[in-house]
Amino acid sequence: MEFEGSSKKMIATQEEMVEARVPLAYRDQCAHLLIPLNKCRQAEFYLPWKCENERHSYEKCEYELVMERMLQMQKIRENQNANSKQPVTQGQGAAIPLIPKPANA
After folding, report:
1. Does 24 map to a domain?
2. Closest to 72 measured CA to CA, from 3, 5, 9
3. Is there a contact between 10 and 2 (Cβ–Cβ < 8 Å)?
4. Residues in contact with 16: Cβ distance below 8 Å, sequence separation at least 6, in sequence order
5. Contact indicator for 22, 40 with CB cutoff of 8 Å
6. Is residue 33 part of a domain?
7. Are residues 19 and 37 in contact, defined by beta-carbon separation less than 8 angstroms?
């Protein structure tokens, strides 16, 4: 399962994530790091000072994904701003006002 626009590849398969009971919200490109982290957490009774290396690598991976999405969104916004500065013809692509005018105005 490859996500469009992401530079990271999925390493963990769906079967591995189902077997490790990874929640759907956490099944992203960093799931391969979450599986050993959760196993370590269970083995160490969720003590916060345990499993630091696994947690750090997982959080770094998630941070990189967020930064990548932010850069992609910035590029999209720049493209939209560049397109909006061009003159818009009346028929196609005319902006729809977000706040409608009252009926008797």
Report:
1. yes
2. 5
3. yes
4. 32, 35
5. no
6. yes
7. no
